[in-house]
Design brief:
Layout lengths: L1 H6 L7 H4 L6 H28 L3 H26 L6 H6 L2 H35 L6 H16 L4 H29 L4 H10 L16 H17 L2 H7 L5 H35 L18 H8 L3 H33 L8 H25 L7 H12 L1 H12 L9 H23 L7 H15 L9 E3 L5 E3 L1
Antiparallel strand pairs: 1-2
Helix pairs in contact: 3-6, 3-8, 3-12, 3-14, 4-10, 4-12, 6-7, 6-14, 6-15, 6-16, 7-14, 7-15, 8-12, 8-14, 9-12, 11-14, 13-14, 14-15, 16-19, 17-19, 18-19
């Protein structure tokens, strides 16, 4: 709230949406780490190594390559066109129907992504705090959303650039303190703890089984495409990047935070192995299913931090999860509000009180939508991080197909059929994935986004406009003209 008070001073009508394009690039880069990590990475990533070893790091390596595409292909386009909503590119390239379709797919994707990220963090806060106060879960979610509204409604992205930095500090501190506490309790040095992690059977990074969803090529290619789709084609992430002063600052921001992010995610996966070692050496039983796979892996870190690692680790865990809760939802709500008001309400042509009224109404509307999604998925089990990326494969796939087609071809399409193509592609992807899994025991895994994007591109080729053929006609005096 203090950051919000100072950052909102001197704000203009555009501050909520663009941050006045004055954000220091290094501040944006560090803050975006927390926004990308969120509560899902903080809790779900350490737990998932129990069933998936380090295979997820193949996906992260793909992410690094995807960020290079964002840096050197997408950012120059966004800055050249001076976009506020990045989906207005689709209007210039294809037409209004494609523009609205792209924006709508983002709104759906981001609403589900933000809700699922907040769900995990809210469950932990419920367990740690609100159950003891007899406050029901739905009220916990309302309290979080209300607090987010209080510090973002004035200056939006201008405030979030600064609050994200604070949140990232506490999120990373939470992991570091947990690691320190575990290696101290196990009487290990830093070098010994690294050896313990490397020698553990969970430390298996590369999977070459072609049929497995964790296969290297599937994970790596999916990592590239998901990074492009969920970051480069995501209003939430790009809105922060576009608050940098110029293209070069934005590119430095993207390159810097992609490297910090890869290192931080590796840190969290190493923490996961240490948590399992700690549980094993202290006789802490972990529930497992009939096939031997671990259940409720998202509860591993919260359970050990709050019940076994002591007060110091517990406090920093809660600070980390609180920071993750807010960083995952504040920028998402701002991005959703920006995209809807610019893409559907044409807020750029409205000023003063009307502009403020529209912005606040949309912000409240998306807060309600996120609340509803959270309540629908409130009883889900397993690691939410896998669920998020699977959902992203279906919702971001058409967006990825549209942008790749627009940037790498000069083909014109019949704009009115694009909504149908973008709806058909995810449905066809789901049916194909079920067919291959049932008949060939072949799991698409996260590569479903590539299949989805490819089907979208094929659909766009079907609706391409026919080129006019050259016609010759001859005048009375024998002169040829070509139309």
């Amino acid at each position: 709230m203090t950051i919000s008070y100072f950052s909102s001073k001197g704000s203009s009508d555009d501050s909520y949406f663009t941050g006045d394009r004055k954000s220091p690039w290094f501040l944006v880069a560090f803050g975006m780490v927390g926004a990308v990590l969120s509560g899902v990475t903080f809790v779900s990533l350490p737990g998932m190594v129990g069933n998936n070893s380090f295979y997820f790091y193949q996906f992260i390596l793909g992410n690094v390559v995807g960020y290079l595409f964002i840096t050197f292909v997408l950012i120059p386009v966004y800055y050249r066109l001076r976009l506020v909503s990045i989906y207005s590119y689709l209007n210039e390239r294809f037409g209004n129907k494609t523009y609205k379709t792209g924006s709508l797919f983002f709104l759906i994707s981001q609403s589900f992504g933000a809700a699922l990220r907040l769900l995990l963090a809210a469950k932990i806060l419920q367990f740690a705090f609100f159950d003891k106060l007899n406050i029901p879960f739905f009220l916990t979610v309302i309290i979080i959303l209300l607090l987010v509204w209080l510090y973002t409604n004035k200056s939006g992205i201008k405030t979030i650039v600064w609050t994200d930095t604070l949140q990232t500090i506490f999120l990373i501190l939470g992991a570091i303190i947990a690691i320190y506490t575990i290696i101290s309790s196990l009487n290990l040095s830093i070098g010994q703890s690294v050896q313990e992690v490397i020698q553990h059977n969970y430390f298996d990074v590369f999977n070459w089984d072609v049929r497995s969803g964790n296969n290297f090529y599937k994970q790596f290619i999916a990592g590239i495409l998901v990074a492009i789709a969920m970051n480069g084609l995501d209003q939430n992430m790009m809105q922060k990047t576009l608050t940098c002063k110029n293209k070069w600052d934005a590119q430095k921001n993207t390159l810097t935070y992609s490297l910090i992010l890869a290192i931080t995610q590796f840190l969290f996966m190493g923490l996961g192995v240490l948590l399992y070692i700690y549980a094993e050496k202290n006789g802490i039983s972990l529930p497992s299913g009939p096939d031997g796979s671990l259940l409720d892996t998202d509860e591993l870190f919260p359970n050990l931090a709050l019940n076994h690692l002591g007060l110091f680790a517990g406090v920093f865990f809660l600070l980390g999860i609180i920071a993750a809760s807010f960083s995952s939802v504040d920028s998402a709500l701002t991005a959703l509000t920006t995209s809807f008001t610019y893409d559907f309400l044409d807020i750029s042509n409205k000023f003063g009180k009307e502009r403020k009224r529209l912005k606040n109404a949309v912000l409240i509307g998306f807060s309600v939508i996120i609340f509803i999604i959270i309540m629908v998925f409130s009883n889900s089990r397993g690691d939410i991080i896998s669920l998020i990326f699977k959902v992203a494969g279906y919702t971001y796939g058409p967006l990825l197909g549209l942008y790749l087609f627009g940037m790498f071809t000069k083909i014109d399409i019949d704009d009115k059929w694009v909504p149908l193509i973008c709806l058909a592609a995810p449905v066809a992807t789901y049916m194909l994935s079920r067919y291959f899994e049932t008949n060939w025991n072949f799991d698409f895994g996260f590569i479903n986004i590539a299949v989805n994007a490819l089907l979208t591109v094929l659909g766009l080729l079907i609706i391409k406009k026919k080129q006019k053929t050259n016609e010759h006609w001859e005048t009375d005096n024998g002169t040829n003209f070509q139309l």
